[in-house]
């Protein structure tokens, strides 16, 4: 559930920040009082009242504590700049005829609904203060922003294999994969119980895989998990486990290990030694990182050019803190 809620939150993000603005459903209020305009961008103007309404809706958990006024105004200013960027991109999309189809929106909604039944999906929407119609509007906006970025801003960006290889060779040491242990483990509440099981294991009277939680106190709770837990990096092990595994060969079992969580016996199933992966193993990761770096630079240059050539105003005075306010 938490992962899906995070997905919905990310759905509303544009250029790294969640910004609600129903561009497709309503007109923005315009006033002739210049001092009341907080943002003028993309052919639209947002007044202080409109801005505060949008900020409150997008940041419902931000405290309005006067003692934190500097922090609050900093958040508002960052929100304003990102909102201005969104207005610009949506205007470019409108002027360029860039839009998304209903079928694309429905497909995206189906992806979001995946893993939910109708009841849990409705409950999620309610907990987030959403309706299906609002979610559909947010989805249209997000997909439109993504499309205008790809078609108008990032269209000429590419990362060559030579660039990726050069990055790999320069920063090869940063890709080191740490030593990993694939372990199987069982836990016991008492040392006596653990030693009894260990004796049976060593005499081959009992197979490791045959030891199940049912043979232990059913009330015991193992926060580390039991059974085959897959590969775990050395840094992710308890110190007691790390010390016990260091001298173990694949297939061997440890002696009884006492930890703050109880008594354990471990079996080393496999071991991956520390190594530097081959270029092919990290090529996609490197390409993604280099592309993100290029996108950031291109996006900044694109927005600067647009703002230099068009009337884009953000009223910085609006975000200054009045030192005399209580």
Report on this structure.
A hairpin with a 2-residue loop joins strand 1 and strand 2 (17-18). It contains ten helices and nine strands. Helix 3 (69-96) packs across helix 6, helix 4 crosses helix 6 (132-153) and helix 7 (161-170) crosses helix 10. It is elongated and about 80 Å long. It is 47% helix and 14% strand. It is of the alpha+beta class and 326 residues long. It has two domains: 2-157 and 290-319, Orthogonal Bundle (Triger factor/SurA peptide-binding fold); 177-272, Chitinase A, domain 3, CATH 3.10.50.40.
Structural features:
326 residues; alpha+beta; Triger factor/SurA peptide-binding fold; Chitinase A, domain 3; four-stranded antiparallel beta sheet; three-stranded antiparallel beta sheet; 10 helices; 14% strand; disordered N terminus
Short description:
By secondary structure, the protein is of the alpha+beta class. 47% of the residues lie in helices and 14% in strands.
Chart the SSEs and their pairings:
Elements: H1 2-11, E1 13-14, E2 17-18, E3 37-41, E4 44-47, H2 48-58, H3 69-96, H4 102-113, H5 118-127, H6 132-153, H7 161-170, E5 180-188, H8 191-202, E6 227-233, H9 239-245, E7 257-259, E8 262-272, H10 279-309, E9 313-314
Antiparallel strand pairs: 1-2, 3-4, 3-9, 5-6, 5-8, 7-8
């Amino acid at each position: 559930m938490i992962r899906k809620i995070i997905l919905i939150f990310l759905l509303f993000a544009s250029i790294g920040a969640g910004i609600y603005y129903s561009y497709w459903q309503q007109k923005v209020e315009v006033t002739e009082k210049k001092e009341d305009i907080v943002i003028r961008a993309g052919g639209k103007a947002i007044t202080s009242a409109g801005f505060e309404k949008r900020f409150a809706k997008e940041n419902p958990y931000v405290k309005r504590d006067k003692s934190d006024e500097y922090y609050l105004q900093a958040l508002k200013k960052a929100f304003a700049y990102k909102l201005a960027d969104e207005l610009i991109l949506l205007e470019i999309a409108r002027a360029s005829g860039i839009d998304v189809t209903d079928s694309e929106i429905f497909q995206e909604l189906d992806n979001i609904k995946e893993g939910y039944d109708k009841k849990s999906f409705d409950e999620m929407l309610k907990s987030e203060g959403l309706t299906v119609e609002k979610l559909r509007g947010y989805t249209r906006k997000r997909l439109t922003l993504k499309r205008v970025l790809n078609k108008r801003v990032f269209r000429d960006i590419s990362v060559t294999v030579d660039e990726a290889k050069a990055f790999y060779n320069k920063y090869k040491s940063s890709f080191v994969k740490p030593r990993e242990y694939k372990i199987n483990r069982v836990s016991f509440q008492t040392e006596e119980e653990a030693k009894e099981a260990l004796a049976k294991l060593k005499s081959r009277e009992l197979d490791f895989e045959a030891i199940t939680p049912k043979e232990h106190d059913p009330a015991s709770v193992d926060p580390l998990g039991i059974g085959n837990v897959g590969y775990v990096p050395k840094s992710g092990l308890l110190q007691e486990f790390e010390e016990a595994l260091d001298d173990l060969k694949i297939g061997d079992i440890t002696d009884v290990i006492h930890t703050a969580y109880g008594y354990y016996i471990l079996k080393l199933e496999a071991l991956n030694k520390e190594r530097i992966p081959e270029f092919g193993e990290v090529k996609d990761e490197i390409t993604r990182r280099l592309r993100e770096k290029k996108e950031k630079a291109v996006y900044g240059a694109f927005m600067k050019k647009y703002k230099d050539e068009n009337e884009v105003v953000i009223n910085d005075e609006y975000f200054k803190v009045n030192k005399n306010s209580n």
